[in-house]
User: What shape does this take?
Amino acid sequence: MASVVVRKTEINDLSNIIDMIQELADFEKMSNGPQLTLNDLIREGGFDSPQHPAIFHSFIAEEVTTSSRDHPMTRKPIGYAICFFSFSTWEGKSLFLEDLYVRPQFRKQKVGKKLFQEVVQFARSTNCARLDLHVLEWNTPARDFYRNFGGVDLTETEKWNLIRFDEKVMENILKL
Assistant: This one.
């Protein structure tokens, strides 16, 4: 018998998270996007040292099969979520959901819902006033998923646009 378990990521999960980050990038048609290494995740997740604060928090969804005398328990990574704290000058501490990904063969099985609820629980337990995220315009299933939970698309309602300055642009700004 198999069940889905969502839990806080541990250091041994990070290689699976790296694999799923690439799967998400492939799905988003940005296969060359991910530049992170396993060591980056270890360092930035605060897994390498208690003195190094975590820059991000993450959760993993696993399909867990129960063990019997003939078959040991197995854990299969099937999804993940990565988030980090941000700050709103209007509302205070916020949580930003960077990624929520479920492997294709496990979609439509409420795995995404379980992962999302874990992120929401984390936001509430850490006193966040709100949860923010971005979704690609063409990703209608994801947009509908968050809308069904009551998420508001600020591009539609308030005309907010996301602006980005990459590393090269920031370096050029400093030369002005």
